[in-house]
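Dear all,

This email documents one entry for the complex benchmark we are building for the journal club exercise. For each entry we list the sequence lines for every component of the assembly. Then comes the predicted three-dimensional structure of the complex as a token string, followed by one or two observations. Please use this as the template for your own entries, and keep the labels exactly as they appear.
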Amino acid sequence: MRTEAIDPPGVQWLRVSPKYVTVRLVEWAIGNVLMLAVLSLPLIFVLLGWWRWPPLWLAITVPAVMLVLALWRLVLIPRQVRAIGYAERNDDLLIRRGIFFQRTMVVPYGRMQYVDVAVGPVERGLGLCTLKLHTASAGTNAHLPGLPAEEGARLREQLSARGEARLAGL
Amino acid sequence: MSPADSAAVSLPDKPEATVENDWKRVHPASPFVRGWVALAAVGFFFGRDAFERMLQGRDFLDPNLNGRVPWLLAGGAVVLLLTVGGFILSWYFTRYQVAGGYVRVNTGFLFKQQRQARLDRVQAIDIVQPLLARIFGLAELKFEVADAGESAVRLAYLPLDQAKQLRATILARAAGVVIESGTTEEIPEAPEHVVLSVPPARLIGSLLLSEQTIGILIGAAVVIATSVIFENNAIFLALIPGILGIGAAYWSSFNKGYNFTAAISPDGIRLRYGLLDTQAQTVPPGRIQALMVTQPPIWRIFGWYRMHVNVAGYGVSASSEGAARTMLLPVGLKSDVMRMMSLVLPDPGIEDPERVFTAGLDGLAPAGPESAPNDGFITTPRRARLLAPLGRRRNGFFATRTALLIRSGRWWHTLVLVPHQRTQSMALHQGPLARRFGVADLVLHTTAGPVSPRVFQAGVEQAVELFDQQAARAREARKRQTSEQWLAQVAPQAPEVAAAARPKDGSLPEEPAPLERPEQPQTSPQQEDRHDG
């Protein structure tokens, strides 16, 4: 993937596992299929003649718009997953994400208070995990999803060790 | 009286074996001061009946009472005994100790809790005196560590001078002053030098001209307009609770801001304020994570500013008490702001701090096309003038050797200052529109508090450069900060640089005398270096 304008120059991004797309697909399906089903109920009722309101065009438009949005998000998922990247530098960890709304974050090792590894049910099935970094700031929303389990464990150990070596106070 | 009152207040370092002897209790009256609401409720419950009778002109006592007297009395006695007994037990089982680099507090008799906090992790110490405690000459000591939650240690209540003594002890230990074991000599309170105070007239003026007032005026106009249109006066009755609420809010701001005094001592910045409830905060050197100066549009007529800070232990709190704690200056002139800045950032890391800070407070980039910024602040590029037509000339940042200054707000002037070694992490944000205009936002993450530093709409090249440089600068600054104990921290630079930094403080505007420096050596010669961390 090409380097975006806001990425610091000369950074070699490591990508997360492509299998993470599956996790996102499951999340997408749970969220959107349910939502779509609920929003389609009025259409069904109107078609069956049980309901007089809403008018047919409205009953069609709402789920249709939702469907388009959902499909749009579905199409974006692989690209979004490919846009997640991280890079270990000497003193800090870089994390980037997003295609439209991009974010590049730097977390100094010395600032890490603790490192979490979380595994959800779908992730466990695929052998993935999510790494979360916590600093003293609640604004540091640094999580790295879709890491292979052994890479997650390696990163956690490495980050903890580096954090300890460079630990600074607040 | 309890042993807590008679014992010497200084806490000599003793070997671990005799540590048990150092446990002290809070003042015996404290549960009553704290739990007066419960006592008042008991009193209210039993007094109400008799009171209502008196109002109705009947006998003071219920004529049918005779049969019930024993039961009532017994019930009342039981409730009272339980309450007082609970108070006494809670007092008896609450003990504290300052020893071996920790402050420990034991509470509870059914569910025991022992809490200990490292002294060198202290973020701030507050001495709070609610009105009732003040009448009894008592004070509550709050010890904050960086968990952004409730206070790590609350000692309620101690006699005021004992609380002050304990604060001095804790701060001295936290600073790294070594106390030889066996000495019973009291640690003197660090001398302080009053830097500024807010006159009540200015406080009232600032409250009357605050954003709140504008909102109220708009609301009142809307209400009057609706009542005229609908020819209905009942709406005014519905407003009474609102008016009471507004009055309470003003009163609370006035009560909290009254007699606001800032002072500097070797232990850090001291803030004292309050009309009925008084509070004295001490924020040790280098504990301020971020600082924000704001100026609402109307305040510009009088040249007033207000300042807020992020301190790790204070966190964010919606309550007025919490909001008051993060207030560094409720209202002040530019000279006051400069003085507070010099306390928070003793080494501004630039040659002419006053000019730069002034540019940060009120500066605007020249309107012309792509002319070089004259005040050092790097502002939003001209190509983004459609995206930020108002803020373009105001949004900007300036990095000194020790801190990053971020200014924003064309009407609501805002200046944010983040010392380099306090930066936690950073992120560059860019949305599709910002990409179209070639700008990006840089967000600095700091501990929870009212200040959230963000560089708005900087040009992409400058933003990326700042992102990179800032990471490096924060790294360098952290290396210099080697210890949590501010006396033990190594000096940041070569001595000549530090020496050069001294006169700079003195050159800040309108200082009545050389600031606090001449007074420091009285406490301890080591403390000269306190500003350098």
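Observations: The first strand of chain B starts at residue 24 and ends at 25. Chain B touches chain A through 39 residues (CB under 8 Å).
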